[in-house]
Design brief:
It is built from ten helices and five strands; from the N terminus they run H-H-H-E-E-E-H-H-H-H-E-E-H-H-H. It is mainly alpha-helical.
Length: 251
């Protein structure tokens, strides 16, 4: 039986066995079955790894520990005070849950922002008459009401060579939304492609460009707009507006 609220020393006894990623994935999915964003975060942060094959705790950048990549310099003592050892499977999950209950998903912002539910959340219904975007109204509607939550909306124009965290002359600022774009395209076209835009890595390369082109082709076929989208693999106002209104629909 898997417990996360047991004392540290009991964890050391019970969890002397080092769980493999596939076993941890099962544990995570059961524990966070009502908080699926945390399942996504665990996969994004560590691919469900708590340990290296050697049995030592898995580390990111030297200081981030285990499944939820918890900063040991900041959290080790605080976790111990609560009875959690972040270097164990149980402790890492238990302390991550403690953080999540207090702060939500914000401590894992880079992973959380790529989370897209399999089913559309309860979101604001878009009133097309109030949209102030210079786009074809059929494109902005994308087959109905499905305006994405604000944190999932794209505001940047994107193209090949853009990369999250880097300056873009096209964007005229730092790029922050390539991973979000990739997640949206993979979701929208998931019935047609395994990963229509390639892996979610924050790099706008050839695969992502092809994903944007696939989305543009699909939008033209499904919506048959009076002014079709140009199939150029560039995310401009038309394509961005379609994506931002897609959270209630998958092509």
């Amino acid at each position: 039986m898997f417990l996360v609220n047991i004392p540290v020393f009991a964890q050391e006894v019970v969890f002397g066995y080092k769980e493999k990623p596939k076993e941890i994935e099962v544990i995570i999915k059961e524990f966070f079955k009502n908080d699926p964003i945390m399942i996504h975060i665990a996969k994004c942060e560590s691919t469900f790894r708590q340990y290296y094959d050697s049995g030592k705790p898995f580390r990111g950048s030297g200081i981030y520990i285990g499944i939820f990549q918890i900063d040991e310099n900041i959290h080790t003592q605080a976790a111990m005070d609560l009875g959690f050892d972040i270097y164990t499977t149980a402790g890492n999950i238990g302390y991550a849950n403690h953080i999540y209950q207090r702060e939500g998903s914000r401590p894992w912002y880079n992973c959380a922002k790529t989370y897209l539910p399999d089913t559309a959340p309860d979101v604001e219904v878009v009133d097309l008459d109030t949209l102030t975007v210079d786009t074809n109204s059929q494109i902005t509607s994308i087959l109905g009401s499905g305006l994405c939550p604000e944190e999932l909306r794209l505001i940047q124009n994107l193209r090949v060579s853009d990369r999250d965290g880097r300056f873009s002359t096209y964007q005229k600022g730092e790029v922050t939304e390539v991973a979000l774009l990739q997640s949206h395209i993979n979701r929208i076209l998931k019935s047609q492609y395994n990963e229509a835009s390639g892996p979610v890595d924050g790099i706008f390369g050839k695969l992502t460009k092809r994903g944007v082109e696939r989305l543009q082709i699909a939008l033209n076929e499904v919506l048959n707009p009076a002014k079709p989208l140009v199939i150029d693999g560039v995310v401009g106002p038309y394509t961005r507006s379609a994506i931002n209104n897609s959270c209630g629909y998958n092509l």
